[in-house]
Amino acid sequence: MDKRIAPLETKRQTRKAAAVDTMHLSSIAIFVGIVFYLAAILGAVWMDSAGVGDTIIGIFVVVMILVGMYFVFAIKVARQWEKGVVLRLGRFKGLRGPGIFWVVPIIDSVTRWIDHRVMVSSFNAEKTLTRDTVPVNLDAVLFWMVWDAEKASLEVEDYKSAIAWAAQTALREIIGQMTLADILVGRSKMDEVLQKIIDERTTPWGVTVQSVEIRDVIIPSDLEDAMSRQAQAERERQARVILGESEEQIAHSFAQASQSYITNPTALHLRAMNMLFEGLKERGAMVIVPASAIDSMNLGWLSGMVALAHTAQPPATPPENPGKE
Length: 325
Known about the structure:
Number of strands: 8
Helix content: 55-70%
Shape: elongated
Number of helices: 11
Low-confidence stretches: 1-7
Structural class: alpha+beta
Largest sheet: 3 strands, antiparallel
Distance between the termini: 94 Å
Mean pLDDT: 78
Radius of gyration: 45 Å
């Protein structure tokens, strides 16, 4: 089923539920009616056994059935979260509930039961063009409640369907005024604007909108792929920029260190000795030092000492008496 006709289906379901719920028979009324019907039957049996005339028995049974029907249709019970709209001879009489109340059958009628709880309605806009001519599908959720049951019953025929249509048209209107980028990054702002527009339209009906939340924004697959490639290229560009900035910071640090070594040759020699020491920690390690560095830092004696240390190491001694066990 097309989602665009969802408000129409909601309206049909609401009318069907209203037709079934108009009677709103309570268990108390049904119990009282059953008691009177049983009393009519038992009374007729007793009167017939007592020799009472059939006319009197018939009148008694009819009266008891009418009284039972009166209680069935006169006793109404409104639940804690609802109120009944009572019309007397077609004119508004008042609101009743919550709890038990009485009406006059035939003269009074409870035409509608208004629910005062927070209601949730989903609505959407399919293939709606944004300001930059991009078709989008957007789903949203509306949280609302009836604050004036009299207005909700007298000012609008079906307030639930009216709210659904008002929300959908407001959503299409907002989409047409915004670009795709604004919709994707400005959902909170869009929620506030939608809430304000829908609340202005539903306030005369006695309905207030508490909040609107955008659930999902669906864009064409081709555009989604293009945006994904664009985001990937942007991330690569940022990575290259960060790498260049890191190289610049490293070069700046080396420049500052070289200035310290120029003014303090002893520190340069100590740094060179530390580098050689770190390289010779591992057994059999090889350290390659430029000849210019050896001449400028007078490291010839150090390399000679290192070579002497390697040659002075005693060879491994073979085990004694290898032939004996």
